[in-house]
Amino acid sequence: MNISRRGFMKLAGTGAACLGLTDLGFDLDPARVVAADLKLEGAREVLSICHFCSCGCNVIMSIKDGKMVAAEGDPDFPVSEGALCAKGAAFQSMHYSEQRLQKPLYRAPGSENWEEKDWDFVLDRIARKIKDTRDRDFIAKNAKGLLVNRVESIFELGASQMDNEECALTHQMLTGLGVIHRDHQARV
Ligand code: SF4
Asked: What does DSSP say about strands 58-64 and 44-49: parallel, antiparallel, or unpaired?
């Protein structure tokens, strides 16, 4: 009989739980009714890949009615053996959490308060700041006369929820502008 490591763990866990409880005289029928309503009941499993860093851990997504209802590591994936780090484990909440930030927040210079702004406002402001700073501080040659084409007064810090492709694009854009100070979670 062919069985994956994940399938084996499921069977072993279920078997151990059932044997233990029935041995103690518990009636498992009510539990089975509840189990039928569990959120994974009827869900379709889709194997995907976490895009948050170059480890590329396998992620098993459970999809129900077109919506992800759970995400877990893949025990058959040799690198992580079923584990996910905090970012990978937060896949579902990253998509659906009501606490997720969904609008840009802006804090004016000197202010203690954040205000909601639309994307046009923040993108225009970021572009303006980058352009003005680069125009002011661009260094074409260093003290030895060597061509360096760089800007030292801009620092980019990528958020932990930037995926690999976003990090790569940001990296390329900043390199084109001459920005040399940058860091983010995946260190592309
Ligand atoms: S971010 Fe975490 S879960 Fe995702 S690939 Fe990297 S190590 Fe794996």
From this structure: antiparallel
Model confidence, pTM: 0.68
Residue of minimum CA distance from atom 6 in ligand 1:
53
The answer, yes or no, to whether any atom of ligand 1 lies below 6 A from the CB of 49, is no
49-89: pLDDT as tens digits: 998 888 899 999 999 999 999 999 999 999 999 999 988 99
pLDDT of the residue at 121:
97
Please identify, in words, the CATH class of the domain defined by 42-100.
alpha beta
Nearest to 82 by CA among 139, 4, 187, 135: 4
Amino acid sitting at position 31: A
Strand runs (DSSP E) across the chain, as ranges? Answer: 44-49, 58-64, 67-73, 105-106, 115-116, 139-141, 147-157, 179-183
Q: Is 82 in the pocket of ligand 1 (CB under 6 A)?
A: no
> Domain-by-domain residue ranges, the chain?
1-37, 42-100, 101-133, 138-188
Task: Render pLDDT for 111-166 as a digit per residue (tens, 0 to 9).
Answer: 999 999 999 999 999 999 999 999 999 999 999 999 999 999 999 988 878 888 88
CB of 171 within 6 A of ligand 1: the answer is no
* Choice between 42 and 186, residue whose per-residue pLDDT is larger: 42
